[in-house]
């Protein structure tokens, strides 16, 4: 059971205000949010005839986009309030109670996608999660992760200084406490499982990592 359930249950009703720019403290983290979701959908375009699993669906913005584009999506989300919010947005969405380390899937799938969610796992948990997803992917399957990650320790330190100067104290706390990785460390997890990867910067915080098993 993820540690963050209470926080996300509470955040569910106002979460969309944050991602669509009404929370100034987080504006840079969610800059280009719609573009980020769209880019994820492009990365799995070749999986349209298969099944795409979104983990950490939140209020359902990415699943909604994928559904509208004609993908068969199954959502997995540990927070009951987030599951309710997503279900209101996309009544047809199959959404399951689960999380990165407990994937309630009976069959192999074509892709896993996750936006702004993977950082809730420690590094050891990320390794475990990638192994789990890998075991549930069809040959040629993809894993697409959009999240805050850093090109270097120096970059992260500079960002922390800026956030301090901006007095964005909630974001500052996140930067100290959440499990954001260096890009190189994250890539290493996928490399170790035999994946090739592409990576693209989407704003000052978020990159999209697309990993494929060839
Ligand atoms: C910041 S929200 C992102 C929601 C959505 N993906 C988006 O891009 O707007 C993070 C989501 O991840 C979920 N979450 C937290 N820990 C998780 C875990 N261990 N496994 C899967 N989802 C998790 C939260 O409940 C929340 O809905």
Question: What can you tell me about this protein's structure?
Answer:
By secondary structure, the chain is an alpha/beta fold. The protein has two domains: 1-97, Vaccinia Virus protein VP39 (Rossmann fold), CATH 3.40.50.150; 137-214, Rossmann fold. The protein is 41% helix and 24% strand. The protein is built from nine helices and eight strands. The chain has helices at residues 5-11, 15-19, 33-43, 61-68, 80-89, 123-136, 153-165, 169-177, 183-192; strands at 51-55, 72-76, 94-96, 109-115, 137-150, 181-182, 195-201, 206-213. Strands 1, 2, 3, 4, 5, 6, 7 and 8 form an eight-stranded mixed sheet that branches. Strand 2 (72-76), helix 5 and strand 3 form a beta-alpha-beta unit. Helix 3 (33-43) packs across helix 4 (61-68). It starts with a helix and ends with a strand. S-adenosyl-L-methionine binds at residues 56, 77. It holds the Pfam family Methyltransf_11. Could be a S-adenosyl-L-methionine-dependent methyltransferase.
Largest sheet: 8 strands, mixed
What's the total number of strands? 8
Order of helices and strands: HHHEHEHEEHEHHEHEE
Bound molecules: S-adenosylmethionine
Average pLDDT confidence is 96
Strand content: 15-25%
Total helices: the number is: 9
Domains (count): 2
What is the approximate shape? globular
User: What's the CATH first level of the largest domain?
Assistant: Alpha Beta
* Spans of at least 5 consecutive residues with low confidence: none
Just name the CATH architecture of the largest domain: 3-Layer(aba) Sandwich
Task: Kindly name the structural category.
Answer: alpha/beta
């Amino acid at each position: 059971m993820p540690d963050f359930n209470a926080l996300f249950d509470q955040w569910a009703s106002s979460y969309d205000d944050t991602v669509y720019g009404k929370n100034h403290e987080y504006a840079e983290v969610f800059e280009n949010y719609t573009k980020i979701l769209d880019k994820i959908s492009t990365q799995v375009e070749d999986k349209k005839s298969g099944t795409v699993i979104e983990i950490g669906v939140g209020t359902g913005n990415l699943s909604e986009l994928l559904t509208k584009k004609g993908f068969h999506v199954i959502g997995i989300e540990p927070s009951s309030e987030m599951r309710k919010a997503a279900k209101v947005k996309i009544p047809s969405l199959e959404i399951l109670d689960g999380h990165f380390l407990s994937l309630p899937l009976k069959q192999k799938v074509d892709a896993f996608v996750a936006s702004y969610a993977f950082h809730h796992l420690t590094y050891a948990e990320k390794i475990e999660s990638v192994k789990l997803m890998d075991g549930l992917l069809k040959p040629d399957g993809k894993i697409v992760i959009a999240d805050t990650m850093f090109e270097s320790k120096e970059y992260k330190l500079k960002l922390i200084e800026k956030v301090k100067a901006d007095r964005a104290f909630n974001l500052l706390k996140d930067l100290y406490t959440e499990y954001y990785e260096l890009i190189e460390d994250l890539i290493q997890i996928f490399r170790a499982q035999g994946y090739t990867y592409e990576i693209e910067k989407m704003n000052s915080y978020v990159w999209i990592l697309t990993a494929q098993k060839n």
